[in-house]
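[job 4471] stage=fold_predict status=RUNNING
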Amino acid sequence: MTENSNLQKALLQRLEELAPFSIYDTTKVASIEDGPSPFPEDPLDLSSYPSVTLSSGKKILARLLVGADGLNSPVRTYAGIPSRGWDYERHGVVATVKYSECDRYHEYNGAVTAYQRFLPSGPIALLAMPGGYATLVWTTTSCKAAKLKSLAQQDFVAMVNAAFRLGNVDLDYMHGIDTGQAEELSWRSNVTGVKEDDALLPRLLESVQQGSVASFPLRYRQADSYVSSRVALIGDAAHIVHPLAGQGLNMGLADVQSLVNTIEYTVKHGGDIGDEMYLERYNSEMWLKNNRMLGVTDKLHKLYGANWGPVVGIRSLGLKIVDQIAPVKGWLMKQAGGLGT
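[job 4471] inference complete, writing structure tokens
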């Protein structure tokens, strides 16, 4: 994984290498409306251009306004594009955690391993980062998310370690107590015979970064279209995906690449970059592609949320079969890495 701060730093460095640009920081968008109508003394018609008013009072007219402004996108609202979907009644608990050992990554053929376990309330995953750290993403109920956020650091770390090692009954009990999860994990690990040299288990975590624990509600959203006249939506403004496959950022980056290609094509052919006819190239490429990924993650969420015995058995068998079929496994890995078509 690449940390968000490193991505931002690289993007800012790249911007400095390009043509002049303007960054308006420490400011907010106050409103978005249509541009001014033409005056007799100035026949130029800018009424179709989005006019963005900043909190500083400055107004900006855009030939193309790109909405990268998240779930409740003001740009999408301005464009009048509906967004449809549902809430999963789950929260994603995220944190930056640190492994306890110097050789904190399990490596297989030189590859750093990410770990994921599917629990009845949702999956928990550890994604490796440099320096012995990892990003935690834990899908659970809102009540359990609130409990996790309220725990002392050592008990929070114990709950994460337990989630990869103990059974559901043990985890439910530990969720139900107010404190002492660290002691409970130590006792229950001894009783249940947890083997820390098991390659299927991540290394024990020793700490959680101060102030990094947070949670957010999980949703499924897909805009009816990613474009309208002089507007293009990317990232969470266009779609919200369940985090169990870790595809949110990959999908957003793919949106950016596709939109860049569309703008380049339009400029090369002498077109107007805000013309919906040209923007449709971006929409037609990404809407269906993203819709497939949204559908896959939604079905996986429902599949792994099922506790009925036959479903669990078929699910486990299916994963084992996929793991043995190299072409299928390779295709799925490319999709997960954002390299698929």
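[job 4471] summary: The chain is about 40% helix and 25% strand.
[job 4471] exit 0
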